[in-house]
From TrEMBL:
Catalytic residues of the enzyme: 180
Keywords: NAD, Oxidoreductase, Tricarboxylic acid cycle
Species name: Marasmius oreades
Chain sites annotated for binding substrate: 82, 88, 120, 154
PANTHER family registered for this protein in UniProt: MALATE AND LACTATE DEHYDROGENASE, MALATE DEHYDROGENASE, MITOCHONDRIAL
GO aspect biological process, one term: malate metabolic process
InterPro entries: L-lactate/malate_DH (IPR001557), Lactate/malate_DH_C (IPR022383), Lactate/malate_DH_N (IPR001236), Lactate_DH/Glyco_Ohase_4_C (IPR015955), Malate_DH_AS (IPR001252), Malate_DH_type1 (IPR010097), NAD(P)-bd_dom_sf (IPR036291)
Protein name: Malate dehydrogenase
Reactions catalysed, as given in the entry: (S)-malate + NAD(+) = oxaloacetate + NADH + H(+)
NCBIfam families (UniProt xref): MDH_euk_gproteo
Amino acid sequence: MVKVAVLGAAGGIGQPLSLLLKTNPSVTGLGLYDIVNTPGVAADLSHIATPAKVEGYLQPNGGLAKALTGAEVVIIPAGVPRKPGMTRDDLFKINAGIVRGLAEGVADTCPKAFVLVISNPVNSTVPIVAEVLKAKGHYDPKRLFGVTTLDVVRASTFVAELLKDPSAASSVVVPVVGGHSGVTIVPLLSQSSHPLPSGVDLDALVHRIQFGGDEVVKAKDGAGSATLSMAYAGYEFACKVIKAINGEKGIVAPSYVSLAADSAGGEALANELGTSLEFFSARVELDAQGVAKIHTLGNINESEKKLVAAAIPELKTNITTGHDFIQKPSL
Ligand SMILES: NC(=O)c1ccc[n+]([C@@H]2O[C@H](COP(=O)([O-])OP(=O)(O)OC[C@H]3O[C@@H](n4cnc5c(N)ncnc54)[C@H](O)[C@@H]3O)[C@@H](O)[C@H]2O)c1
Ligand SMILES: O=C(O)C[C@H](O)C(=O)O
């Protein structure tokens, strides 16, 4: 019995993500919120013969609070996507305010919910949610996640392509750590479940994983960024969270979390990184309370160490940008 709220549910990600959630028998309630079109999306989905009771709300008359009431999981794909030539950071100006408003709604209505942030730039929007929840006295770092699963899905797909074995596509697992933009995306190819064939151009593969989002933005040619693969990835991560809430043990997935979510694991990771970072995408073990354990990077090779080192300064800047938006709004 889990109610999931999707904020930004009428968008390119929101609609297919809500469809996938509607197919999950563990989801008993689906609260859809957007500033446009949610009644139609909800009416459409409500005809699917699965248990979830679907309700769609717009902004007026407390729609956000209604969508969030009773939600144990809140997924946020609200906000504008990139167009060619833009970076994810270029979205901050618009999306920061959108995410702040939605986080305020979470704090006011379902402060104990697991919050899964998809809206870009994830490296900065997650700190915004943290600061809003802190300001309202409801911050639990164990329950706040930046969704970086699409990077893991891409890394696994691209490695399976190189293996020239389509049947391997769903079994290849490549951990991706760091953050969710450009050089902050750090694939740990040395830890791939399937060894790479010899002769693979590793630099080109790393670049493709780090800038995979650009491929889609370019191909969509002004009509947005990844939506369907993101809905798939967001659903994959949400399913893990729902299973953990329902008591399943041993679920591990990479996600952008606060290192304070598990002080021992966070400290060990910070020691490995050689610096204190508030947020980092690491492999995280989940339980019904949220983050149970943050895993360290484990054995990584020299080129991966360089990639991690290159990610850190940008992550620090991105995190500060998110914090300052709430703490120093006059900047
Ligand atoms: N984390 C990731 O891996 C990842 C992957 C793909 C896209 N994204 C990001 O997800 C976001 C959404 O992408 P999209 O393609 O679905 O965009 P979209 O424009 O198709 O949909 C966004 C939706 O958000 C809604 N919205 C805007 N302001 C809102 C508000 N205040 N409250 C509620 N809803 C609001 C819009 O009405 C729209 O329906 C973008 O920021 C994009 O960059 C992240
Ligand atoms: O590339 C984008 O802007 C969207 C998303 O972050 C992605 O990785 O596809």
